[in-house]
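ok so i was messing around last nite and threw this chain in just to see what happens. nothing serious, just curious
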Amino acid sequence: MAEMRKPAGRAKRRASARLKSVAGFLVVVATTYLGLLAVTFFIGRVVPIDPVLAIVGDRAPAHVIERVRQEMGLDLPYYQQFWLYMTGVLRGDFGTSVLTTNPVMADIRRVFPATMELATVGTLIGAFFGIPLGVLAAVKRGSLIDQVVRIVGLIGYSVPIFWLGLLALLVFYARLGWTSGPGRMDVVFEYTFTPVTGFFLLDAIITGDWAALRDIVSHIILPASLLGYFSMAYISRMTRSFMLNELGQEYIVAARAKGLSETRIIWGHALRNAAVPLVTVIALSYAGLLEGSVLTETVFAWPGLGLYITNSLQNADMNAVLGGTIVIGSVFIAINLLSDVLYRMLDPRTRTR
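result:
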């Protein structure tokens, strides 16, 4: 009887531990998101831009300004304003854009797929080149190859992205004519191409519009390669660090003692174990490209969320600026949490903690 109670007790303790873990996870998510809302609310109140004047203009009569201020709830105490702001955001209501006169959420739904498409292609390019370069640098540690890879990564961190973007446009578009210029596609396709999902590469494949696909690829290759270069710099550096740690482990010595080939040891054993934390690195790199593509979109006139926020900021459209900031912050939080979940799924050692 006592032996039957022990497994039941262990199962109850495991269930209780899982419940506490889930509860703690939800508390972290809620606290982080509440902090994001508090920061954006504070920014909206300290910037030297009056949202009322941005709507009615600085020549509007005083009674009109006062009425709009009351309608927007700006005459209420700050804690009431924050409550209204938070409940509106949770409903997906970011207000109306002064620049486009559309609901901010509708504008974000329209432009965000372009940012996701650009960041996704950039991350794929960064991972495709960054992982092999990081592995090669670790295997050839201290060699000329290692130094070159590290210098390339250092340049990726140091050179301003807008400068590289302008240089890329000058060389590959203006001088050589290898790629198309700014924008997402040529004007001629804007009247014949029908978006389905908002991701133009996928839409062109779905509709079988191969001429549009070639034009879309020609437009995205420069900004995506630029973002991919910065992603590659980060991924290659972290891959090198993870591989150096794995190559110094005892199981690598044992594998060499058994006579396994270096190729199998490096790619089949060391990289396999290094891939667990590398998933988190790639996810964070993707999140970084989503939030850090503002300058790239501005240089290449890419009609994504970054350009939308930039134009809104230049026109004192704070509803659009804060709405875009919240969306980017929310995606960043979600990707961080997803990477943490994937890390726990891929690494059995974390499940016992």
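not much to say yet. The chain has two domains: 19-90, 111-316+333-352.
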